[in-house]
Structure formats: structure tokens, C-alpha cells
Amino acid sequence: MNIEQYGITMLYALIYIALLVVLKYTLNAKSSGHYVADDELAKGNMAVGLRRCGAILGFAIAMTGVYSGTPSESLSQDLIQTVIYGFVAIAFMVSSLVITDRIVLPGVNNLEKLKSGNLAVGFVEFSMLISTGIIAYSSIYGDGGSILSSLSYFVAGQVSLVLLVLFYEKFVVRNFNIVDAVSKGRTASGIYLGGKLIAYSLILKSAIAGNVTGSSFPDMAIEFVSLALMGMVVLYVFEKVIDFLIVTSTSVREILVEDKVVPAAQLASAKIGIALVLSIGIL
Fold it and tell me: What CA–CA distances, in Å, run from 63 to 22, 58, 106, 137, 229?
């Protein structure tokens, strides 16, 4: 890398930092009706900290999709495009908080729970923000330059993610109310559900990135759905294997009911890991 390339990299880094400041104040404004974010962070509120960390990391992941695109012949045009897509990524991150509040954790006042230090809600929000960043990355990276195309991919990914989580909450763990457990601050449930979110998003990322641009819309939609379903079925099978082999001293139900945090973290990490491996194979 020569001096000119270093200089260009510094410009992109400065743009990222400026956009990160915009994200910070946007998040502060969104939570201002319930708490002052900077005060809660200064007091060491870990739940609020998890939300903020998820937003920072998720946004960084999304921005790598912007930086990974093919450069044009004009540096100024690339810088302008980076700023535009950066604001699009900020909108994606904020939208994920609305989705978490109203759909992923229905009936739960997330901001009040975060203010009270509910780590379970904090972990779910952290994971949803990371998941959003992963889907945004592939939506922007896989795009040929059209914001509309990026938005379409992102919406398809987010809708699929929400549907998968709702299916899991309503049918897979129907004998255990995981949303209620998260609301009551059972950290193991928050970690376990958060692991699911990130694992699902990695599969969806590959389904988006593996889509062939230039095809007709119906063909692209069919390919996306086919790749996503194939990945989810394989992930489900491997998750069952992991449930039996990784934590052998207890069951998933016991982990959730008895709020066993360490085994929950092990399972969540293992499921994210297998999803990462599978996501490479889908591409």
C-alpha cells in the first residue's frame, strides 16, 4: 500500500467516525424519553452498554459492505457514495431497534427494561443489531450501485429473520415462553435467543450474497428463498447435534428454565460458529 492509498484509507476512516457520531446522537435521541444514554453508560449500566456496543459493531459490519464495493474512476464520487450508503446503514440500524421492540420482543418495553439493567433484553438488542449489520453488509456489498436494490435485499433479509425468530418463539419453544423469560431478566434466555438471531443472519447473508444479480426479479426471489431455506434446514440439523454434544451435562430446556448463563453462552457461540461455517458453504 503506497502513501496515496494510505491517505484514501484515512479519508474513509474519517467518514466512518463522522457517521458513527451521527449514529450515537440518533440513538441518544431515540432513548431520550426513557433515559439519558450517556449518563446510564457512565454509571456502568451494562444493558444499555450492550445496546450501544451492538449498534457500533453492527454499523461497522454494514460499512465494510460499503467499503468492499468496486471503486469507480472518481474518488470524489466514491466518497459521496460512501456517505450516502453510510446514512442508509444508519437507517438500517435504527429500524432494527423498532423491529426488536415491536416484533421480536412483543409486549416488552425494551427501553425501560434496559434502564433497569435487564441484561437479557440487552443481549437480544445487541444480537439484533449485529444481525442487522450482517444483513446490511450483504445487501450493500451484493448491490450493483442501486440504493433501491440494497433496500430490497435488506427488507427481504430482515423480514426473513423476523419470521424465523417468530417461528422459533411460537413453535420450537412453545412449552417455554422465551419472550416472557427475557422480559423478566433471565440472562440465559437472552443469550440463547441472541445466538439464534446472529446464526440466522449469517445464513441469510449468504443467501443474499449468493444471489445472481442481473436475473429477473422472480428468479432472484426464488433463488433467495431456496438458498435461505436450504441453509436453515441444514442449520437446524446441526443445531440439534450441537445441543446434544456441546453441553452434555444439561438440556436446552434446563438451561432456559434454570437460567444457566454459561451453558447458554456455550450453545449460542457454537451455533454462531456452525452458521458461519455453513454460510461459507452456501456461497
Answer: 14, 9, 29, 7, 27
